[in-house]
């Protein structure tokens, strides 16, 4: 059985809608245009990619044991993903971007050369991303004269189609398991975004696999601080519907969109790219 490789899953209509979300966000937030256009180029490559094989899952006994008492179904390093298809897509990214006018195109060409030698270099990159090994990521970036953040972004983007296929495979199991923790029930990763739903509830969005899950309205998902005296938020001037919630206990922050304010909300990974200026504001105020 094959699952669609494209991150936007399944059909041309949904893929086209995804690309229209990108175009709409660029019109609404021109300052985010460069990052969204770059991502849009990669999205088109993902849409045209070959299918990935259905991920292999572990035994049902494993799934019964995990998912309880705060244990996610999988750890990041053990996700059963299609790394061969992911590696092929990463090569396409390097090949395409190295032919553009980017300032780092020579580094991208070096990365393509390393990537084409075999799966070993790509496998090391994916392992560094999944295991959050910053030293390994920096070493790999140094080998090809790229910014580690650029390599991280391209590697995570290449992983998305396989992660999406895996997440769809696990949907039925995930729906059956209540979860009230601040990390992803599927892979254990922290959230990168939050959203207030139309009913006013708060959901979190996994920074790696894109899984969404409900979480308490008041509380830090990173350190579980529930003391209102140590929690707060700020809003960007003139941007109704967006808040950045912060915790003075762990000094982490979470961008949050209120879907009740907007007629339409894009997939949260796009909303995150469209609000990078909020990350800068949070960082300048000492939050990570």
Q: Any chance you could write out the topology, listing elements then pairs?
A:
Blueprint: E1 2-3, H1 12-28, H2 33-47, E2 52-53, H3 60-65, H4 83-97, H5 105-116, H6 119-130, H7 134-143, H8 148-169, H9 171-176, E3 191-196, E4 202-206, E5 212-215, E6 231-234, E7 242-247, E8 253-258, H10 268-273, H11 276-284
Parallel strand pairs: 3-8
Antiparallel strand pairs: 1-2, 3-4, 4-5, 6-7, 7-8
Verbal overview:
The protein folds into two domains: 2-174, no CATH class; 180-284, Alpha-Beta Complex (FdhE-like fold), CATH 3.90.1670.10. Helix 1 (12-28) runs antiparallel to helix 2 (33-47), helix 4 (83-97) packs across helix 6 (119-130) and helix 6 (119-130) runs antiparallel to helix 7. The N and C termini lie far apart (42 Å). Strands 5-4-3-8-7-6 form a six-stranded mixed β-sheet. Strands 1-2 form a two-stranded antiparallel sheet. The longest helix is centred in the middle third of the chain and has 22 residues, at 148-169. It is built from eleven helices and eight strands. The model is unreliable at 1-10 (pLDDT under 50). The chain is of the alpha+beta class and 288 residues long.
The total beta strand count reads 8
Round the mean pLDDT to the nearest integer and report it: 88
Rough shape? Answer: globular
Please tally the helical runs, counting DSSP H or I stretches of 4 or more residues. Answer: 11
In total, how many domains does the architecture comprise?
Answer: 2
Tell me the strand order in the biggest sheet.
5-4-3-8-7-6
The percent range for strand residues is: 5-15%
Sketch the major β-sheet: 6 strands, mixed
What's the order of the H and E elements? EHHEHHHHHHHEEEEEEHH
Query: Which regions contain 5 or more consecutive residues with pLDDT less than 50?
Result: 1-10
Terminus-to-terminus distance: 42 Å
């Amino acid at each position: 059985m094959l699952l669609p490789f494209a991150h936007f899953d399944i059909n041309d209509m949904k893929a086209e809608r995804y690309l229209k979300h990108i175009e709409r966000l660029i019109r609404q937030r021109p300052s985010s245009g460069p990052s969204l256009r770059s991502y849009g180029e990669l999205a088109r490559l993902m849409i045209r990619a070959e299918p990935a094989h259905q991920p292999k899952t572990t035994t049902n006994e494993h799934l019964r044991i995990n998912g309880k008492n705060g244990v996610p179904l999988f750890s990041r390093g053990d996700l059963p993903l299609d790394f061969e298809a992911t590696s092929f897509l990463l090569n396409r990214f390097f090949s395409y971007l190295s032919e553009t006018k980017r300032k780092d195109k020579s580094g991208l060409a070096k990365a393509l050369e390393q990537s084409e030698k075999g799966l070993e270099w790509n496998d090391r990159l994916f392992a560094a991303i999944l295991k959050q090994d910053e030293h390994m990521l920096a070493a790999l970036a140094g080998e090809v004269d790229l910014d580690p953040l650029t390599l991280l972004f391209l590697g995570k983007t290449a992983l998305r189609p396989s992660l999406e296929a895996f997440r769809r495979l696990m949907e039925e199991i995930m729906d059956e398991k209540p979860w009230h923790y601040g990390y992803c029930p599927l892979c254990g990763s922290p959230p990168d975004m939050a959203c207030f739903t139309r009913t006013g509830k708060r959901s979190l969005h996994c920074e790696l696999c894109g899984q969404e899950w409900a979480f308490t309205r008041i509380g830090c998902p990173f350190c579980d601080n529930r003391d209102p005296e140590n929690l707060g938020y700020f809003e960007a001037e003139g941007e109704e519907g967006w808040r950045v919630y912060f915790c003075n206990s762990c000094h982490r922050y979470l961008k949050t969109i209120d879907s009740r304010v907007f007629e339409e909300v894009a997939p949260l990974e796009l909303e995150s790219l469209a609000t990078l200026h909020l990350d800068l504001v949070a960082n300048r105020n000492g939050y990570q």
